[in-house]
Every structure is written in C-alpha cells, then in structure tokens.
Design a protein that fits this description.
There is one protein chain. The chain has 309 residues and is of the alpha/beta class. The protein is globular, with a radius of gyration of 20 Å. The protein has a seven-stranded mixed sheet. A seven-stranded mixed sheet has the order 7-8-9-10-11-12-13.
Length: 309
C-alpha cells in the first residue's frame, strides 16, 4: 500500500506564498494498491481536484476508472473538492462512496449533492455521468476484496466523524481526524450548582474508556495520520471543544499505542510554512524503538506503508 497526500489543511483552502512547502488544499489522501491498480481515496477536500486530473491521465487510458471514496465526515472542507473531481463526469467511471450514517432526514447523497445545486454550482448532481453508489457506515469491519480490510470507529467531533483502519498483507494504515481527546462533559467543581459527584465520576470514566478504545483502534499501526490542528497551548486557550487535537496529544497517544510512523495532519489554515518548520524542530523526531517517527504531513508526500512494517 502506498499513500500520497493531496491536501493536508483544515477548514478552508489557503494557497499563497506562506503555504507553498506544506500546501494549502483541504484533506484528501490517496491510498494506492500498486499490484491491482486499485485506488482508495480518503476525503474529498480541495486536494481531490488534482488527484482526479492525475487519474484521467494515469488510469483512464488503462480502462474505466474504479475508485472507493471514504469520507470521514461531511463538513465542507472534506467534501468541497468533489464537484471538481473530473472522473465523475466520465461515462464508465464507477465510484463507491462510504461515509458515516447520518441518522437524519438527509442521506449522504443529499448532503454531497446539496453543494451541486444551481444556486452554488452550474452542474447538478443528477447530471454526473459516473455510476456512484453509497454505503452508510457505522462502527464496523468490511472486506473490500483483494485482501484489503477496513475498520471504522467513531471520533470526537461536532458532527459524526469516522476514523479508519486499512489493513492488507500485514501492513496497517490508520486515519484519525477530525477529532479531539474525549473529555468529561460534566462539572467537576463541587461549588458549581450543576455538580453531581456521581455524574462527575461517570463522565471521567466514560472519557477514559473512549480514549483508551481509540488508542486500541490504531495500536501497532505502521502509519498513523492524526489530527493535530493546534499546539497544546492553543488548545487549552480557547480551542477545546472545537473538534481538533493538540499536536502533543497526537504524539503521546501514538507512542503509547506502539505506532511506527506518525503524520501530524489537518494543519490550521493560519499556520505558515515557517511556523510548521519551527514546530518540527521540537516535535518531529526520527523515531526509536520506544517512540514513533513524527512528521508534519505535506502535499505531495508519498509513503510506502509496506516499508514501514
């Protein structure tokens, strides 16, 4: 399995001279199975536009395009590139879209197609030429064939968001974004009028259980892509509850879980290349037997997951 990052930013595309090195596109990751020419895509942020253009040149001459698109969730920065994904306009393309079950009146198709109404975009969803199929996911494990297994887990974000674990031939890739550490949502201050000793204790227990459960999900991964939008200081000073993780938390949990390589992902759109380089000096490490190699994800970065094993 090989991956390539096509978009690594959170919230909104931010092209410009200050984001040239790490890139300004929103999330999109390509997982490529070289021996079967199979393409799995994780999220359809603005980075998927360039991926689609490559697939038209690389894959279409070999036959109709086949791809599986796994959406972590449907916040706009993770789906905004879809209308510009050229293969969906080509007859013969077959695309399977997997994403979290909405549990609402609107289906995943409604949410994805909503951004392709005439009010927002000149082409309607019903005019797409590709054969598109939708699969609602809960926490489950599915066999995609060809030896590729995918597991999903609920994350901690303001809308239902899924982490994924891809396994094939002994190699493991995990994605854990958008999310932040689970925390006790009940008051722990005895002077607070809403304080309940029983509820406070239960809240602590549930948060601990969910954090341990997530670490078990990516335990032993060869490569982990983890939300790291904020520094620890930023997170504690007004960003708690926004659905994104501090970098230090991602590194600590990856270390405890025995992850081999960690990519810090979903960079804040205000973070410049110079600021990421400065953070890399203190946070990124080559890796040891006790701790993972840590890097900041950047557009164009390619990783051979098999060689991480």
């Amino acid at each position: 399995m090989k991956i390539r990052f096509w978009g690594v930013r959170g919230s909104i595309p931010c092209p410009g001279p200050a984001t040239v090195k790490y890139g300004g596109n929103t999330p999109c990751i390509e997982l490529r199975l070289e021996d079967s020419r199979r393409t799995v895509i994780i999220d359809a942020g603005s980075g998927i536009r360039d991926l689609g253009n490559l697939m038209m040149v690389r894959d279409l001459p070999e036959g109709p395009i086949r791809a599986d698109l796994f959406l972590t969730h449907t916040h706009w920065d993770h789906i905004m590139g879809f209308p510009f994904f050229t293969p969906v306009y080509v007859p013969g393309t077959k695309l399977n879209i997997y994403g979290p079950a909405t549990y609402e009146e609107e289906t995943m198709r409604d949410v994805m197609g909503g951004q392709m109404a005439y009010r927002y975009f000149p082409v309607r969803w019903t005019d797409l030429a590709a054969d598109i199929r939708y699969f609602d996911l809960k926490e489950e494990r599915i066999d995609l064939g060809g030896g590729l297994l995918v597991s999903s887990i609920y994350l901690n974000h303001p809308v239902l968001s899924l982490g994924y674990r891809f396994e094939r031939a002994g190699a493991v890739l995990c994605t854990v974004f958008d999310t932040e550490p689970f925390r006790n949502i009940f008051s722990t201050d005895p002077l607070d009028s809403s304080y309940s000793e029983e509820m406070a204790a239960e809240g602590e227990a549930v948060a601990k259980e969910q954090n341990e459960r997530l670490e078990a999900f990516f335990h032993g991964a060869d490569f982990l892509i983890h939300d790291a939008q904020y520094t620890g200081e930023e997170y504690s000073q007004g960003k708690t509850g926004w659905g994104h993780s501090p970098m230090e938390h991602a590194i600590q949990t990856a270390g405890r879980a025995g992850v081999k390589r960690l990519a810090l992902f979903h960079h804040d759109p205000m973070r410049t290349d110079a600021e990421l380089d400065a953070l890399a000096v203190t946070l990124c490490t080559p890796g040891t037997a006790e701790s993972p190699e840590v890097v900041f994800a950047r557009e164009g970065m390619e990783i051979d997951i098999g060689r991480c094993a």
